[in-house]
Predict the structure of 6-phospho-beta-glucosidase.
Amino acid sequence: MMTFTKDFPDDFLWGGATAANQLEGACQVDGKGLSASDVFIFDANAPKERWLDQWAGMTHAQVAEAQDPDSKKYYPKRNGNDFYHHYEEDIALFAEMGFKCFRMSIAWTRIFPRGDETEPNEAGLRFYDKVFDTLRKHNIEPIVSLSHYEMPLTLVTEYGGWPNRKIIDFYVQFAQTVFQRYRTKVKYWMTFNEINCVKHHPYVSIGVVEENHPHLEQAKYQGAHHQFVASALATKACHAIIPDSKVGCMISYQILYPHTCHPDDLQACEEVQRVSLFFSDVQARGYYPAWTERMFAEKNVVLEKAVGDDEILRQYPVDFVSFSYYMSSTVSAHPEKLEGVKGNLITGGIRNPHLPESDWGWQIDPKGLRLALNQLYDRYQKPVFIAENGLGAVDTVGPSGIIEDDYRIDYLRLHIEQMREAIADGVQLFGYTWWGPIDMVSASTSQMSKRYGFIHVDQDDMGNGSKKRSRKKSFHWYKKVIASNGVDLSN
């Protein structure tokens, strides 16, 4: 008789996820250079519906002004929440929650400030030595993203970003440097964060300024191809330098539903979904799907491949597939006739009347996570890791000084229940990292007030505050969940 289990594996990796550009601060300290994300501003006087504009695409003037030392604009990601000076305190709080792992990124610009140097910045390398040693002291496994929207700004302004094949060599040099340095400290790596998001924000994904670009689609997919090759070469190097290492790809994944059962809606849904999966297809399977030939022809994209590129992709696929999951979306062949999603979503989509929404208009769909896990595992038959999942919300400090964030607890409970169902379905899920365990600057809107953390940071949207850390109600709840290995989900 066949048996199945809904239990999480004994060695399941519970933890939290962050990114250096949103967390660390200390911009240009100890030799760090400016990254692509360091040019984003926050303007409290701008209408909220305009806050996403820069995330969707920067202008040349905005990039130039950001490099002016006399600029009066506020650049939140240069400050983060000052993890750079609080890492010991923050990691101790993660350990108190019982974290088994911590997903983070290495800021490329701390190691190679311009990106094209021949020698790394020792001060940057020493900083991550201290972070990894602190994690090890608390028995927390680091899971490290090599590139999380943090490419050096010089590679954008002087090289034109990832459409320039030279960036492959710079990236591989960076990867080999950190693999060698941290070969005894880091086992799990991810090559690119949300690599498929080049579709929506090519500036921060591949370093392409859209303004007046003569052939944006060509630049997007040429840049993506170079990232695929770079990812494969990094995987090769990682396995050689760290024999027991595991290297993963990472995509942003929204489960898509057809708006109706009309065949046109089904076809539209399939076409949108597979464009996202194309990126993990190449990295996990090692080749371009057949249908992309038609897509490239319709977009008038002609990829320039060097001799041997296809062989490199086939020889060095990733070991596991990871993804971010925040919501599902609905697709129609005729979206102009329907109500679109609300809030700050550049991905678009049709509003699903069956789902609630977050404070930022993201539709909450826990059952979609089970579907996503099954789809990805069925497709690739490789271990799966949930690299990001979370709820951005407006938190209010109560009279007792505690944030009673039951909405965050409810969100997390419902998603963990669906993770358990996916494991019962047979999915080989080996870890989960909540985005983000501590309040930090929002990737898309550059706010601090869009809070995800179990740990509150006393800092407002303009960087004012004591930066004092304090535990929310969800901190204690997640601690209990981890201690019970996902069994105790009660209040």
About this structure: The mean pLDDT is 94.
